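Record now logged underneath.
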Amino acid sequence: MTHSPAERPPQPADQPRPWLARAAGSLAHRNYRLLWCAALGSTIGTWMQKYAQGLLVYDLTKSTFYLGLDDFLSQLPILLLMLIGGVIADRHDRRWLLTISQYVQAFSAFMLAALVWTGYVHVAWVFALSFVSGCGQAFGGPAYQAMIPSLVPKRDLPNAIALNSSQFNLSRVLGPSGGAIVLATIGTAWCFFVNGLSFFLVVIALAALRLPKHVPAPTHQAVSTELRSGLHYVRDNRVVLALTILVTLSTFLTMPLQTMLPAFANEVLSGAGRAETRLSFLMASQGLGAIVGALLIGMLDATPHLWRILLSVQIVLGLLIGAFALSTSLPTSLGLLFLIGIFFMALFSLSFSLVQMTVPDALRGRVVAIYMVALRGGGPIGALVAGGLADRFSAPAVMAINGLLLALISSGVLALKRGRALA
């Protein structure tokens, strides 16, 4: 029996869709599309500033330790305040909270631009403004992540999360490249000023969203009580605890590579063009690899072997970082950073997927916030330690050791899990 279009039965929600619908289905929804495009523009501005700020700090101090300290101070508010920010995001209007965070970060960028323009810039002011910007991110980040499920139907939520990763990493390609052009043509301060303007893209998009009016809950538990229940769950669940420890270790050992790229561009790869151009190529190559990694992981179905895949990815990532640290050729370094970007994104996508599949929905917000603090915390602490060691030894030596440690530890954990499976 055939049906006319008007009489055709509705398609089941789980019916397979064409590849394009699965790859970009969440962009069909107006609210998500508006915020995604605005976030893309704003994140491009953020990476433009990160590119120029790394060069500025290194030019002011000639120290990899201060590069690490700047990164640490920008992430410190996230470590201290993100858990509280997650609770606040559940209690107040997330659109309002995210809007305020954009104003805070725009203020920081405009102030840095003014300091460079007037010639009063000092590394201490750069550090202070990095801390202020981090405060905005600490409260805006949880609000943004908590808002995503209200922008798309449940079926498109995984795709929305994947596109967020792609947006972030596409910005890593376009931001440094745009920053290099702006810096070379009209100066460093304009990189910060353009970033300040970019936050207003998100402000405008938030105002245009069509969302139900926020209705606050009539009662709340104490913040400490809500946080304590999430911490107890992480402590008592072996899988989530192991993932949290692994992601902290991984960021501690791998994230300093991003922080010390200005040192590699200036000192290790000094024979190929200007340092600014080399740095933009290095950052863009890693970002492009991360985009490819996000797309590849997006096509991977959940399997019982995700743990084994995750540990294998960590082993390869450690070896790639060690190889990059030993390279003195720009083309070789660009190729290695492209592969590092792929495995870096695979590592954190797989880890986050395992957390999401393990945690019950009633505790998801708090546990994910704890996981995100671990994810964001290992990097700046690792950058601070690695930067100090690199000043005493060298950036290549430190990163080569970091890569080897990651590969060895991951190999040990993989062997232990295989031994338990055979026991």
Q: What stands out?
A: Residues 23 and 159 are 7 Å apart (CA to CA). The radius of gyration is 22 Å.
